[in-house]
Write a structure and sequence with these properties.
The complex is a heterodimer of chains A (312) and B (168). Chain A is α/β, with parallel strands linked by helices and 312 residues long. Chain A contains eleven helices and ten strands. In chain A, strand 4, helix 3 (102-114) and strand 5 (118-128) form a beta-alpha-beta unit. Chain A starts with 10 loop residues before the first helix and ends in a 6-residue tail after the last helix. With 168 residues, chain B is mainly α. Chain B has one domain (10-166). Helix content of chain B is 55%, strand content 11%. Chain B has a three-stranded antiparallel β-sheet. The longest helix of chain B has 29 residues, at 65-93. The mean pLDDT of chain B is 84. The chains are: A alpha/beta (312), B mainly alpha (168). Chains A and B meet through helix 1 of A and helix 1, helix 2, helix 3, helix 4 and strand 2 of B.
Chain lengths: 312, 168
Amino acid sequence: MNNQPDSNFRWGYAIFVLLLLSVLGFLAVGILSLFVGVNVEELSGNVALIPIDGVITGSEDSGFLFDTTTNSLETVEVIEKADKNPNIKAIILEINSPGGSAVASEEIANAVKKTNKTTVAWIREVGASGAYWVASSSDYIIAHRVSITGSIGVIASYLEFPGLLERYNITYQRLVSGKYKDIGTPFKEMTAEEKDIFQQNLDSIRDYFAAEVAKNRNLNKKDVDKIANGLFYLGAQAKELGLVDEIGGKDEVVGYIEKKEGIKADIVEYKKEKTLLDVLSDVLSRQSFFVGKGIGSSLLDKKAASSISITT
Amino acid sequence: MKRLNLPKEKTFIGPALIWKRIAAFFIDLMIINFFVLFPFRKLFQNIIPKDYSYSEAYRLLSSSTDYTSFISSVSIVISVLIILYFLMLESKMSQSIGKSLMRIYVVSDNKVLKKWQLLTRNIVFIPLFPFVLLWIIDPLFMFFTKTNQRLTEVLSKTKVVEKYSFGQ
C-alpha cells in the first residue's frame, strides 16, 4: 500500500457534515416544490377542493397575478389529477364565478361529469351562467342562501362605434370576400339580417345550455326553458326551483361528503401550481407583449375588429 | 531486573474484510436515512398513506406526470446528498462514520486522495442510466478481486483498507 491511513476521525466535523446535509435536504424539498410545481400538501388529504374563481376562460393568457380567472384547460387538468389520485374520495368545486366562455364552461362541466368521485358544487357568492353550468354537472349542489345563481342564458353584446369614427372623420374601408366575414365588427352598424343570424346562434347556444342543465339536474327540459331567460336567482329561490339541492356553506358540504363516503374529510386544495419558471416566463412574455403592443399594434386590435365573444 | 527482548507489536495495512465493509455501509445508510433524508422521509409520509402496499404506492406516484417528475428530481437530490456525505467525510478523514466504527479507511493508490477519485468511487449512487447498472455489478466485483475492491474503486484507483496487527 502506498498510503498510510490516518486515524484522525473527528466527530465534531462528522456532526457538522450531518447537520449541513440535513439543512440542505430541507432546502432542497422547498426548492424542488417551487421548480417542479407540485404542491406537497396536495399529495395528502382525501377531499380535493378545486376553486372556480372569477371569469371562466379558455385561453391561458388571461389573468395574471391580480386578475382572478379560471382557465378551463388548467381546471380540467386539476380535476383529472384529483380523479386519478386514489386517496381522493370526493371533489368539491368551490364556485365564486359569474360564468364566462361557453366552450370553457362546457369543458369543465364535462371533466366533472367524467370523474369517478363524488362531486359537490359549493356556490358561495356567485355561481351564475357558465359557472352554474359547471355546478349542474356535479352530483350535488350546495349554495349559500343569498348567493347569486342561475342566469341561464347567453350574451354577446358589444359596443358599436361607427358614429364615433365618423365624428373623427375615420372611415371603415370594408374589404371582405364573403358576405358575412366581418359580421360583428364594431366599426360598422349591424344589419337586421346579421342580427337575426346572431340571435339564432345565441338561441341555439342557450337551448343547448338549458338542455345540458336539464340533463345534469334530471329536470324537465320545458321547465328549465321557462327559467332559462338569463334571470339570476338567490340561493333560496334556486333551491325552490330545483336548481340547487341544499342551502348551506362549507359545513354542509363537508357533512354531505362525510355521510356519503363514510370518511372523516381532510380537505386539500387542488390548483394548478405556478412554478418559479412559469412566473418568470409569464413576466417576460407579458413584458414583451406590452412592449410590442405599445410600439405598433395598439392602433388596431385585431381581435376586437374580427370577433365578438360569446359568453354564458 | 533485566527485561526480555520481546518483539514489539507489528502492523501492516491490508484490504478491509468484506463483512466489515458491508457493516460499515449499512451503518452509513442508517445514519444517512436518519439525518440526511429526514426531510424527504416526512415528505414521503405525507404522500403515501401508512396502510399502502408497495404496489399501491407505486400506482399513486405514477398517477401523474407532476408526481413522477417530482419523484425523479427528489431521487437525484437525494443521491447528491449521499455523495456529498461520503465526499466530505472521506476527503477530510479518509473515513465515513460507518468506516470509522469498523476501523477501516479509504486510501489512494497514489499518495493523496483526490476529489475525482472520491467522486468516481461514489457514482454508484446516481439514480440514472447507465449508473444504475453499477448497483449490481459494482459490489459483486468485490468478491472477485484480491484486494476486495469494488469496480468503481478499481476505476478510481482507491482501496478500502484496515490495519492488521500481530505480535506483542
